[in-house]
Amino acid sequence: MAAPTRDDALARDAADSLAALRERFIVADPDRIYLDGNSLGRLSVDVRQAMAGLVDDWGKRVVEAWNDWVELPTRVGNRLAAAALGANPGEVLIADSVSVNIYKLAHAAADHRDGPIVTDAGNFPTDRYVLEGVARQRGRAYVEAASAADAIAAAAGGVLCLAHVDYRTGRRLDIREVARQTDALVIWDLSHAVGATEIDLSGADLAVGCTYKYLHAGPGAPAFLYVRTDLQSSMRSPIQGWFSRRDQFAMAPGYEPVDGIERFAAGTPSIPGVVAIDAALALVEDAGIPGIAAKARALTSFGVELADAWLTPLGFRIGSPLDPRARGAHVALHHSEAWPICRSLIDRAGVVADFRQPDILRLGFAPLTTSFSDVWDGLDRVRRLVAAREHLEVAAGERRVT
Ligand SMILES: *Cc1c(COP(=O)(O)O)cnc(C)c1O
């Protein structure tokens, strides 16, 4: 079958009900094709305005504004729960980073299960490192299984942490199906899924995720954590910070956790970050997760179709699941020269993608900001660059952030 043409891409853009939302994002260089929204989402006009408003508020009201700000981590948590997670009010808190939230929830889960602490070797590095450390502190076995299926099998009676969408391959797991397969307490890492796919946490045990990828809340915006309502009263954070204490401002002696999800707070929240998340969620609500997820499936399918026609003859191999429901919003392409290809795409072809070890070129199609013509043009530039072997002219130097 012939590869889709650029007119096909334009026709899909014309039929895209989310296309108008792109206008609400800031695009400084329209010739550059941004396919790295799975690493850092673009800035929206809404978030820029909200952050400017927060700075004004701070200037005018100084400490008085804390009366409003102190409610934000739970209020915005509830908004996120309803807009994107399928969770109930009171189950989601904005706090800290994903790494710190995994630490808190893994310790709390280890209080409930005596067995091993388990993940799979393909899970995101920080998840593996933090879990290994928690296992050492708790004197538990730490198991890094070869695959998610092996991790599920190894986790009986223990604590299991899995990524809903794999950061390299993009494969997406079924949350309910995993719950049926194990008696372990499961911590879901939603970082590569939230804002890109349908998530239904109802009945799930525990979860964490970040807000700076497909939620567009900005670099270092705080993460979130979820604890199912009926688990909350019997779970405690290992960090007994004052924001998690009953009657915080009594400043009383001794520690006692507050009821509810706020017992997983630690210290003073980053208010600029929470304000950014609040504003970013307005865009997600306007689009609706069903529309966002459908567009992610359509964009990745379009990308896979083009990659299959143009790039497999050039030595690429598609590393993501071919069933669109079994993947998130990015596509992984294996190539033995993936690193120089990625560098030269950025430096010479105006395509921002990223590289993941050992041989993956990762193309992220953030549904709110990526058009079908971006996908077509981006892959067309990859094909031209690699066919001309231009990437071999780039020095394969090191960089701290890849
Ligand atoms: C991005 C990402 C993280 C990031 O963790 P931080 O503590 O926020 O730096 C963690 N896990 C996964 C799966 C991710 O995709």
Order of helices and strands: HEHHHEHEHEHEHEEEHHHEEHEEEH
The count of DSSP E runs of length 2 or more, i.e. the number of strands, is: 13
Mean residue pLDDT:
96
SS summary, helix count: 13
- Note the gap between the termini: 35 Å
Task: Walk me through this protein's architecture.
The protein has helices at residues 6-15, 45-61, 66-69, 72-85, 98-110, 125-138, 148-154, 175-181, 229-232, 271-287, 289-311, 338-349, 372-387; strands spanning 33-34, 92-94, 117-120, 142-145, 159-163, 185-189, 206-209, 224-227, 317-318, 330-334, 351-352, 354-356, 360-364. By secondary structure, the chain is of the alpha/beta class. Helix 2 (45-61) runs antiparallel to helix 10 and helix 5 (98-110) packs parallel to helix 6 (125-138). The site of pyridoxal-5'-phosphate has 13 residues, from helix 5 and helix 6.
Annotate the secondary structure layout:
Blueprint: H1 6-15, E1 33-34, H2 45-61, H3 66-69, H4 72-85, E2 92-94, H5 98-110, E3 117-120, H6 125-138, E4 142-145, H7 148-154, E5 159-163, H8 175-181, E6 185-189, E7 206-209, E8 224-227, H9 229-232, H10 271-287, H11 289-311, E9 317-318, E10 330-334, H12 338-349, E11 351-352, E12 354-356, E13 360-364, H13 372-387
Parallel strand pairs: 1-11, 3-4, 3-5, 5-6, 6-7
Antiparallel strand pairs: 2-8, 7-8, 9-10, 10-13, 12-13
Helix pairs in contact: 1-13, 2-10, 4-10, 5-6, 11-13, 12-13
This protein binds pyridoxal-5'-phosphate.
